[in-house]
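Sorry, any thoughts here?
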Amino acid sequence: EVQLVESEGGSVQAGGSLRLSCAASGYIGRDVCMAWFRQVPGKEREGVARVNKEGRTTYAEAVQGRFTISQDVAENTLYLQMDNLKPEETGMYYCVARFSGGYCYWDASDYPYWGQGTQVTVSA
């Protein structure tokens, strides 16, 4: 069984940076897509960044140029570097994974494996 455990989030002021990590255990293999989703109060859960089995990264338009997703394949760890954070990005951030050939999508329902979530708070 795959388990995903996010690092503790944090609180920053607007314009600040945070780095999240996600440790994956269990069978991961190579045909995996890993991604970060977030749940902002009052909004639907949304994809933020993803990386497919070939290492290709894709970002939501709202975070393009400010967030960077990366992974340490040997350590089965996923990262999300978040720069120039905005107050409206306060919420729960989740590490997610799917197999099925390692293809990535933005629909949360396509990801069967979720971490417990970590809180990110950005103050004005």
